[in-house]
Amino acid sequence: MLNNILKLKGVSVLNKKQQYNINGGDQECRLTMILDTGDTLVLHFDNYSNGGQGSSEANQNCLDALAGNATRCWYNCSHDGYEQ
Length: 84
Known about the structure:
The chain has helices spanning 2-7, 16-21, 52-67; strands at residues 27-35, 40-48, 70-77. It is an alpha+beta fold.
């Protein structure tokens, strides 16, 4: 699964210093992707910005995944109300 994530366009592994310097929010979002291999990948993140901004960030992540090796992508953020 990690190899699939690393194959997505724009994905890179951050070192400890880079991870420390990230300023994230505290909104949780779940991204679900169907990869071109047919596999389903579900990712949970809790570092999106609060409110609608975090939803916009998750949407951009889906667009990036679709430009890579995902054929479908959708997101679900706590701001929007899960499963709504």
